[in-house]
Amino acid sequence: MSDLHRPGLENVIASETDISYLDVENEEIVIRGYDLIELAKKVTYLDIVGLLLEGSLPTPSGRNAIEGKLKSEYGLPSNVCSILQLLPEQADLMDVLRTGISAMASYDEELDDRSREANTRKAIRLLAKVPQILACGYRAKTKLPFLDPRKELSFTANFLYMITGQVPTKMEEDIFDQSLIVYSEHEMPNSTFAARVIASTQSDLYGALTGAVASLKGTLHGGANEAVMAMLLEAGSEANLEALMLNKLSQKERIMGFGHRVYMKKADPRALLMKEALADLAIEKNQPELYNMCVLGEEVMKREKNLHPNLDYYAAPVYYLLGIPIDLFTPIFLAARTIGISAHVMEQHGNNRLFRPRVHYTGPRGLHPSEPQTR
User: What are phi and psi of 3, to 5 degrees?
Assistant: First the structure.
């Protein structure tokens, strides 16, 4: 193996950025100079939107202006809704989301404008419309009526309402908002890298985000939160969970929701925040057993494999108690990450160099055809 070859680009620095950084030694996720966990405890998702797009936290009036811009972009073209309705019932919701985002590109008059100002406006449009594509796609698939956005609700409350059909309580809204924050940005995971690679060709924001959706659909990147919830429901109780997990481990099955390519020795700080949220929500919903099951599962994996939970492990039961269908867990991840990916695409467009890596060739050399071929 070549000394230059790093499978999976392990620890290869691919870009310079002032957007975010995973400081593993100090257990900190840095977002434009701030600790993401502190942000999640003190500000709202719309503050993160302003921070990622503009580089600084907005004032209260600035936050209100962002929300006003988002609400002005609510609504999908009727043709896009029709496309979503035409997709088969068995369509994966990530494929539905990818199709909807791609279709929306044709309706954006600024599609080919790569300026920061135009990209900022497109990011706001996408952030406003992706939750609606997600909700409409789900409702089309399950034969439920579409719900119009409710502008009297906050952005976060409306997002949850369009999925569940119920106006959330203040606690539900706050916890969902916090989850959007911790999913919003995470340095250079595969989906963000995919988006930057696409953007480096001077492709547009919609194309880059569509590629990110395709990346996140892969089971080694997205989908872990859905798998976690499926395991918890399969176990059904604390009494069954440990036996189920030990059996999976004995069969060499991977238990999703544990371990991380970057957080290899320490816990994902986002998981700890969602663990606190789950504790509060389990009390509110009178489902303490679900929280206790998750704590037990964490203890089993620490004992058996010395692995810590990642964000998906505790986000999954939080979303379940919020009434969110399991097959929407990963699409919501993408919806929350839309703003982070948009920031990266804007940064790539602003200081671009085309990604064009090389390979370490391991095939043969010097081969020749035995006889000339007649034509």
Answer: -65, -20
Helices 329-350 and 311-321: crossing angle in degrees, nearest 10, is: 130
Which one of 47, 177, 204, 312 is the catalytic residue?
312
**Residue of 35, 92, 108, 221 marked active site:** 221
Residue 14 DSSP SS3: coil
Label the pairing between strands 20-23 and 34-35. Answer: unpaired
Residue 245: exposed, middle, or buried by beta-carbon count in 10 A (0-12, 13-18, 19+)?
A: buried
Enclosing H/E stretch for 20: strand 20-23
- pTM of the predicted model as reported, rounded to 2 decimal places: 0.94
The domain 34-218+327-350: what is its CATH number?
1.10.580.10
Q: How far apart are CA 50 and CA 65, in angstroms?
A: 10
- Residue 344 among the catalytic residues: no
Would you kindly state where each structural domain of the chain is located, as residue ranges? 34-218+327-350, 224-321
Q: How confident is the model at residue 263 (pLDDT cuts 50, 70, 90)?
A: low
pLDDT digits (tens, 9 = 90+) for 296-351: 999 999 999 999 999 999 999 999 999 999 999 999 999 999 999 999 999 999 99
Q: What is the pLDDT of residues 163-217, one digit of tens each?
A: 999 999 999 999 999 999 999 999 999 999 999 999 999 999 999 999 999 999 9
Which superfamily does 224-321 belong to? Cytochrome P450-Terp, domain 2 (1.10.230.10)
34-218+327-350 shares its CATH topology with 224-321? no
Q: Is 312 a catalytic residue?
A: yes
Which one is catalytic: 260, 308, 344, 349? 260
Is residue 360 among the annotated active site residues? no
How does pLDDT run across 116-148, given as a tens digit for each residue?
999 999 999 999 999 999 999 999 999 999 999
